[in-house]
Amino acid sequence: MKTIDDLGDLRGKRVLVRSDLNVPLDGTTITDDGRVQAAVPTLRKLIDAGAKVVVAAHLGRPKGAPEAKYSLAPVAVRLAELLGVPVRLAQDTIGESATATVAALGNGEVALLENIRFDPRETSKDDAVRATLADDLAKLADFYVSDGFGVVHRKQASVYDIALKLPSAVGGLVLKEVEALRKATENPARPYVVALGGSKVSDKLGVIENLLGKADRLLIGGGMAYTFLAAQGYPVGKSLLESDQIDAVKGYLALAKENGVEIVLPTDTVVADTFAPDAPHDVVASIAIPDDRMGLDIGPESAKLFASKLLDAKTIVWNGPMGVFEFDAFAAGTRALAQALVDAGANGAFSIVGGGDSAAAVRLLGFDETKFGHISTGGGASLEFLEGKTLPGIAVLDA
Predict the structure, then answer these.
(1) pLDDT at residue 255 above 90?
(2) Which of the listed residues 78, 278, 318, 369 has the most CB atoms within 10 Å of its CB?
């Protein structure tokens, strides 16, 4: 893949950058600006090179038309604060405002196009339809830089098709992500341990199947653990359960045994009466969850067990929280796992936090992000990379 340095002298050139600025909002307040911060180094490099920087990004899931709640206005404010330069927000994506805003840019200045998904062509399944949006975007720029790792697994106009229209390069963030994930997929240092959590087994079927041929050990926590426990015949009460995945999980357990891959499940569970931050709760054995209660976190013994399974690891991938970390009462398991990654890193392990809720948990729980080998900005993209899938936004840059 070409990098920004391969594009030559960018002074006075218009550079369209696809960033991932899809941040969580409470009204108009950004509650986690991790993705905005991650976008800054590449944008700063282009600013310092004297480029006219045009940023394309999405927020939320609008239905192909403008919606005020999905405006990038709060993001433009935060981005300007982090960059230390004004960020001009166009009032549309490729219309009169976008054209005028880009035309007014001076060298080293930045414009942010309004939410790219306000245009229905962005996510169209029709190649020809997406190509028309790519053509419109190409009129606004001389070069294209792909720097939104959270969207590179999507075949979308501002991710894939635009790279066919303009001289293109990979941004520093995407390059960093790919290099880190390749450490976990191409001859990883061993022991190679993967910790999977989150709510659903079905979200990670492909990852589990692929890892059973690569990892030495899988730690299973979060909501998905209850389907694994049920597959072994244990009661899970009112815990999250995907009964339609039990047969698939039984197959994985058998395959893991056949391949010599150790699967580690929680031995104790924090159970509650209801899904609420103040729900009465206590700890029970994972094989004896009462019928009228639900598991909301791994227990303290499980946390110690999981940490012990990371002690000798040389490569660690973590994707998905161990419990409902947003509630203080059920955050201990996720906190303990994150601390175990930090401790393993101090012993020489390379750790990857696989984006999404895992990355959010690291920040919410107050960890020093520099203590982890790599914190991904793309949950879905990192999962598909670990599955061994081809990511369209990467493949088009390799072409």
Answers:
(1) yes
(2) 318
